[in-house]
Every structure is written in structure tokens, then in C-alpha cells.
Amino acid sequence: MSKKTETKESNKHERILQAAIKVFAGKGFFHARISDIAKEARVADGTIYLYFESKYDILLSIFEEEVGKLIDDVKSRIDQETNPQRMLEIFASHHLSMMNRKTSLAEVIQIELRQTNQKMKEYRNTRFSEYVNLVSTIIKQGQAEGIFRKDVKPGIAKRAFFGSLDEVSRVWTTPAPTSYEVEETARQVASLFMNGLLDKKVS
Amino acid sequence: MSKKTETKESNKHERILQAAIKVFAGKGFFHARISDIAKEARVADGTIYLYFESKYDILLSIFEEEVGKLIDDVKSRIDQETNPQRMLEIFASHHLSMMNRKTSLAEVIQIELRQTNQKMKEYRNTRFSEYVNLVSTIIKQGQAEGIFRKDVKPGIAKRAFFGSLDEVSRVWTTPAPTSYEVEETARQVASLFMNGLLDKKVS
Amino acid sequence: MSKKTETKESNKHERILQAAIKVFAGKGFFHARISDIAKEARVADGTIYLYFESKYDILLSIFEEEVGKLIDDVKSRIDQETNPQRMLEIFASHHLSMMNRKTSLAEVIQIELRQTNQKMKEYRNTRFSEYVNLVSTIIKQGQAEGIFRKDVKPGIAKRAFFGSLDEVSRVWTTPAPTSYEVEETARQVASLFMNGLLDKKVS
Amino acid sequence: MSKKTETKESNKHERILQAAIKVFAGKGFFHARISDIAKEARVADGTIYLYFESKYDILLSIFEEEVGKLIDDVKSRIDQETNPQRMLEIFASHHLSMMNRKTSLAEVIQIELRQTNQKMKEYRNTRFSEYVNLVSTIIKQGQAEGIFRKDVKPGIAKRAFFGSLDEVSRVWTTPAPTSYEVEETARQVASLFMNGLLDKKVS
DNA sequence: AATGAATGAGCATTCATTCAT
DNA sequence: TATGAATGAATGCTCATTCAT
Asked: The pTM is what?
């Protein structure tokens, strides 16, 4: 019985969160009304405040919980690989396919995560940078193994790599691309970063 | 006399625009109050409406006028160069140095230009894509000249390149980096895109 | 319990409406502030928007609901009478006594109902003309019965009659006359319309 | 030369007044903007304040000056007549034809003169009542001469008579009736007040 | 006198949050 | 827990009026 109740509770928490992702993606954080989220989650307005402190807290929770899942997922995949080049390919492929599968969440991340806002910045600096730092760690490893160029600065490369993926996936919000397109794009970006634009065939 | 008046008028228009860039960058479009902009521009609230239709119109004008200047500027620099590799280096260097010089404007572009909003999206599709398309044009030219790899898709590469620059410059909002850092970052990103991460010395 | 809530709700709706009548009568529609109405009704400003769409909607509701009541009331009284002369006397007496009892409402009707405004004009042409047309119907009946002069145009007479009552009651807004005065005035106006000014005793 | 200037000045004063009548009639006093009036009068906004104290002062001036003209006009016509019955007929005929000729002014009088407003009320009690009192004076004279019924109260009859004319002319704002209609309406109203509704042929 | 750019007080409306039930 | 009616702070925009030219 208590289990049932607990399930019910977590259901509501989850329902509100998913509703919020949808609504935030649809009209942006500022234009989204608590009543929109409540309606989408089929609860009363007041109920939301039993699960979240404020409208802003919902946004933060989305990053905390949903982005957290993404990060853990990507991390575990990369851990199974040892070759740095392959690792970056996996990161790219995985990031893009997630952005594609979770369009609404992607949009919320891409838009709201950039808001100039102290709390938001703090968040980026903690939880999110952990994710992006996966890239610089891989690059450093590749450099140590003599596979990657040593004159590349990992701190810059990580942002360049992440920025590429981010911008490349932005056009996908509507309509959704095929999984082939996603894979091909991941390959292109990874290849670009591995080999560069210059044609070495001649040399 | 008429000159004086004219100057005054354009001063106000410009002052309000610059004030808005500052305020929008500082607290974001939604949190910015018209009275904040008015105070920053040292005019009365109502005066703003002599020069702009609405708060939203100010944001659009920033893109229309300020981004327009940037685009024209970068374009004219690139037109003086014929080598595609150099052209991309110039694009990178110029984009980053502008983002660095106009921190507030950069922030407004990076944040507000992403807002889920029909008009904003339209804007991206017209004026802004012109800018990003410079990159794909250069890439196609390089491929035609046999300098760039032909298996790279210009449409993906342009976004990857722009996304890299965008993300790389994001961290600069505070505090401002030295011009050396800016140049070095531009070189790094361009080099990454030219040569890739892989160390070819061995081969 | 549900009764209590229902009562409370309808109380609020009614309270706001009555408060609005008072405030509109006191300072006119345009000078009336939403907060004035809210204060008078002892609710928060925002509460008003739970019951009405806009300030203008309140005004329309006053006519729709309050004037509707008046019309129904007068109509039912007249239906109980068959003699056209008596019917006009009843109309006059009833109209005036209502204007006297509901001073604020009377003032709102007399002032706001005349506003040059498309919606207001439409309203006059539908709900209100129904009321005034009672008079022409009575006159036509009287003419058919040979009691009233046939050279009188009912369309003109109805407006003349209504205009007389309207103007005659305008002076009552402050201070209120005794019910004797009201009755006497009704009798005078009705008598004027029945017999005219000319002294026939002599002839 | 000074005459020319004077003429110019009075031209502007008059132009502004006529423009205001037009604009007030078109959108009502509250919705009318000073800039609307200025544009209609082909002067700058600020110029209006050289001739009038405030927006409200313009409205008052309309009544003071324009209504004044009407009153003087009607008075002089009535002064040429000695028979009370004819005098009322002339009053009716004249009032209606003026309301018809000056539609905009009529609308302003009918609407704005009713606004609940201290100054407006004062105005009604002074300048305007002078006009309406013409009617009661005539009635008293008729009673003294034994032509009019002595049981009619002049104070009530004057308002009834004026109210009739006022309401009867309200429908004329658009489109304008022919002068025949105006005359016929005047005759009807006067006749109604002279002879009443009741058919005396039988007696 | 005339102009019209500048001012800033004023107000309807929205919506996150609370709280009695 | 859940509800949703009630709250009231917050703000973009309008426009009568002023005043430097």
C-alpha cells in the first residue's frame, strides 16, 4: 500500500517533469505558465508546489535529473572503449542520437542552459562541465598515447567539439532526421575533428 | 542646426540600442525592464517608444543593425583573400575577436537568437544564415580547388565550424581574455578544422 | 459545503458587478480603475479577472444582466394590463421608479450606453431597443383600438416618450426624490403625452 | 498686417475647435488623442496648448462657444414670435435642424454633456440650463395666457420636451435624414406635446 | 507664435505562489 | 496529498503636457 502511494508520488513528480520539458520546449521557459505544465501533467496548479519549490526549480530539476541521466549513459558507453579516437566517435554518435530522440529536452538544454543567470551559470560549471570534460579527458589521453597532436589545447578542443555537436543538432528540432542522418552527421563531425579539412591524398 | 538635431536624434537611437545590448546581456531579454534600458540610456521610458515599436522590436533591431554590421565587416575581409584555408582562418579570427570586443552583443546573440520564437527563427533563416553560409561557400570553393577533402559535407561542416567558434567564445563573457588568447584560440580552432586531431607526423 | 462555495462564488461575481456599477456611476467608465472596483468589492485586483474578461466586459455584463432584469420586470407588469393608456402610464411609472431606486445603475445606463462605440451601439440595437419598442407596440395597439391619434408616428413617439422619461429622471442622481415626486412626475409625463399641453376646457 | 495675424490666430483657434468636434464625435472624448486633433487641424501638438489649457478645456470650449451660438440663434428666432404654441414649434424645429446640420457637434453634446463630472455638471447648470429654460418660460407664458393646461408643471414639461427632442435626434448621427424628415419629426413632437396621444375626434 | 521631441505618471492585465478546504 | 480560487506584485505601453529651439 505504501509502495503504491510512493509509486503514485514518483509518478506525479515524473509526470510534472516530463510535462515541463514538453511545455518549456514548446514556448520557452518564460512564456510557459505553471498552469500549462499543470494541465499537461493533469494535476492542479497547486500540486506542482508539493513536488517543486518554484517554476525555476523545475527547470533546474530537468537539468539535474534528465541531463544527469544523459551524462551517466554516455559515460558508461565510453568507459567500455579504450581507443581515444573511437571514444570521441562514440561521444559524438551518442550525443547526437540523444538530442535526436529527446527533441524537447534537447531544445530546453540548448536554449535555457544559455540563459544569463547566476544559478544557471553555476549549474553549467558543475554538473554540465563534467559532461563536456569527458572530451578533454579523452583528448589528453590521446595525446599521451601519441595518437593526437600535442599542439592542440584540450580545453579549447573540448569546447570546439561540443559546440560542433550542439550546433549541428540544433536544426533537428523539427522535423526529426532519420537515424541514418544522425549517424552520418556524427561520423562527419568526428572525421572532421580527426583528419581536418585538408586533403592529404596529394602529399 | 539641422545637423545638431540629426546628431541628437541618431544619438538617442544609438544610445538606446547600446543600452539595450548592455541590459539584455546583463539580465536577459525577459528580465530586462524598459525602465532599465531607459535609465541606462539616460532617457525617459516613453522616449524609447519614439524610436522603437516595442521591447521586442529593440531586440530585433539589435540583430538587424548590429549583427548586420558584423556580417558586412567579416564579408569584406574575406573578399580580400583568395586562399580557402586563409579565408577560414580569417573568419575564425574575426568572429572571435568581434565576440570578444562586443561581449554584451555576443551574449545577446548567443542567448536570444536561440529563443523558440517564430520571428526569431525567421530571422535566423534570413539574415543570419547568410553569415554562416559564408563558411559553406568557402568550403565548396576549397573542395573545387582540390585543397579540401571532398568527402566532407559543406552543410554539416559549416555548422560544426560555426558551433565551435560560438561555444569557444561563450566562456569569454566574463572576464575578457587578452587579444593574444583570442588569436591563439582562433588559430587552434582553424588548425583543428584544417588538420584534425590525429598526429600524422608518424605516417 | 458545495452550497457554501457556490454561494461564495456567485457572491463574488455579484459583488464585483455591484461594485462596478457604483464605481462607474461615481467617476465614469474611463476614470474608474480596476483597483477601485476591486477595493469596493473587497477582492484583489486579480480576482476580478477570474469572473470577467476585461474592464470592458464588466460594463457589458452590467447591461446584459442588470438591464436585462429591468426589461423583464417592466415587460411582465405591462403584460398584465390591456388598456394602452394605462400601459403607457405603467411604463412611465415603472421606468422612473426603477431609475430612482437604482441611481447608480441609472447613471451608468444614461451615460455609458451612449458612448460612441461599436459594441455599445450593437448592444443598443439588440437588447435595449427591445425595451423601447414596447412603447411603439403599445401605441400601435392604441391606434388600432381607436384610442390614440392615427396621425402620430409610433417610431417617433416611442423615442419622444422614452427621451422624456430619460431626461426627466436624469436630475435625480443626487439627491434622491421622494417616491411621491417620482409618481407625480410619471403622472405628469404620461398626462402630457395623453392630453398634450393645450387647454381644451375652453373649446 | 496685424489684422492678418489676428485672423490667422482666430483661424487656428477655430480650426482646432472644429477639428476637436470632429474627432470627439468620431471616437469619443476619452479615445481622442491631442495628436489626432492636431493632425486634423494641421497644427503641431504643442500649438494646441497656446489656445487651450488642456484637452478638457477644449471640450468645455466646444460647449461654451458652439452651444452658445446655438442658444443665441434659437433665442433670437423665438423672440420674434409671440404665440407660445408657435414658439415651442419653432424651438423644436430649430433644435432638430441644428442637430441635423451639425452632426458631429450633436454627438459631442449628446454624449459628453452627460459625463459624470463635476465641471460638466456645473456647466449644465449654468450655460445649458439657460437653453432648456427657454422651454419652461414659454410654457409658463402659455399657462398665463390660458392657452396651456395649468396642471402641467413647467419644470417637468421642459425636461420632457427637451428629452424628446434629444432622443429623437440621436438616431440621426448616421446617415443624415432629409430636411423634410427633420421638419416632419419636429411637427410630430410638437404636435404630441400640444395635443397628446388621445384621439379627441369622438368627443 | 509654432514646433515636435521628450517626459513620466498612470493603469490594465498576467501569473507565480499561497492556503483554506 | 490534492485542489483551484484568491492574491497582489510587477511591467509594457500610452498619451497629455512641457519646453528648448
From this structure: 0.86
